[in-house]
Amino acid sequence: MSATAVQPRTKRDVRTASRWLAAFVVPIGAAAIALLRYFLPYDTADDSATIVSKVMAEPGRSSLVLWLAFIGILTLVPSAYIVGKLTRRRAPWLTGAALVLLIPGYLSLGWLVAGDQALWTGTEAGLDAGTITKLYDTMHPTGGLAAGIFVLGHVVGTILLGIALWRSQVVARWAAVAVIVSQPIHFVAAVIVPNHTLDLIGWGLQAAGFAAVGLAILRLRNDEWDLPTLP
Length: 231
Hints:
single chain
C-alpha cells in the first residue's frame, strides 16, 4: 500500500491586504492631530493658570483632545514608517534621517498628553484650580525632555520626509510640498502667533500629503510593495 503524497499548503498572499491597510492608516495620525490642535481649549503659549482655567471651562473639548491624541499616538509611527517604505529606495539617507527624528518624536507625544490627562482628571475629580495648576506644573522632568524631542523630531523630521517625497517622486509635487511646509506652519500657529485654524491647516496639509502617499500605495503592484510570502 503506497503512501499518499501530502502537498504543501500554499500560503495566502497578504500583500494586497497590507497595501490597503497601509493606504488607510497613513493619513489618520496627522488628521487626528490636525483636529486636536483645532479643538484644543487653550493656546500652547498660555501660562499654566490660563490653561487650567480654559480646560475647566470646557472639559468636553479636553476629553475630545485626549481621544484624538490616543488615535494619533497609535497611528503616527506606523504612518511615518509607511511613507519611509516608499521613499527609502530613491532617497535612503533623507528617509533614514527623517525616521530617526520622527519616530522618537512621535513616541514622545504620550508624555505630553499626560499633562492634558492630568488637567482633565483634576477637573473631573472636582479639584480646585490652584491644586490642578500645581499638579500640572509638577510633572516629571521626562515631560520636558519629551517636549524637546517631540518638537525637534516632528518638525525637522517631517520637513526631511517631505524632501524625500520630492526627490523620490512617489507622489505629485504638490503633496511633497504640502508635507514640507506643514510643520513650519504648525510651529508658527502653535508658538509664534497662536491660531487654531492655521494649526488645523498645517497638520491638515501633512494629512493631505500622506493621503496622496496612500493613493500611490494603492496604485502599486504587489511585487513593488513587498516581497512575496515564502512557501
